[in-house]
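Following up on my earlier thread - several people asked me to post the actual chain instead of describing it. Fair enough. Here it is, all 79 residues.
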Amino acid sequence: MAATLTDDEVGKTVVDAEQKELGIVAKVDGGRAYVDPNPSVAEHVMAAVGWEGEDEEDYLVTEDMIASVGDEIVLQGDL
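Reply from S.P.:
Thanks for posting it. Predicted structure:
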């Protein structure tokens, strides 16, 4: 069963199955997370206060790619 993404995930760190940090969630829309691979300090602060945003360098993570959602989002190892 895939994890459910909500606006509560904005600002969370996304890691791969080996715990390598891939970026932070910049925005959640329709069960998809837009992940910023190189967030600036300002983007970390904006995410921490719940301000969503996306830009052209963000990559898309869908719910079926996620192994777990907790303090961080862990992607499946077989992507």
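The mean pLDDT is 83. That should answer part of your original question.
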